[in-house]
Specification:
Structural class: alpha/beta
Helix content: 25-40%
Order of helices and strands: EHEHEEEHE
Number of helices: 3
Largest sheet: 6 strands, mixed
Strand content: 25-35%
Shape: globular
């Protein structure tokens, strides 16, 4: 199973998350968490607010998945399965912009 980490722009972030969830499903795993740094969370908040035609708020979930702020990720985002699926082995890659 492959997990991708990316530093997307505001125009890309929601599509990247959706594609990552879909990729995990196709690999037979269930997405459990969206991990992102503080900069990515700022980008995510504004992108989601724009999509929903609302003001940026502090969103705790996206499509029923918990959003976890990881202070070590900065502007990067990745979607991960549960601990059991990760323990069985994953390949993690960073997509450079």
């Amino acid at each position: 199973m492959t997990i991708l980490e990316h530093t997307p722009t505001q125009d890309e972030i929601l599509d990247f998350i959706d594609d990552s969830v879909r990729q995990l499903q196709e690999a037979g795993a269930e997405a459990r968490f969206i991990l992102m740094g503080r900069e990515a969370y700022h980008t995510f908040r504004h992108a989601l607010a724009e999509r929903l035609h609302r003001k940026p708020k502090y969103f705790e979930t996206y499509n029923y998945l918990p959003v976890v702020l990881d202070p070590f990720r900065q502007a990067a985002v990745c979607v991960v399965p549960g601990a059991g699926a990760c323990a069985e082995g994953v390949q993690a890659y960073r997509i450079d912009a």
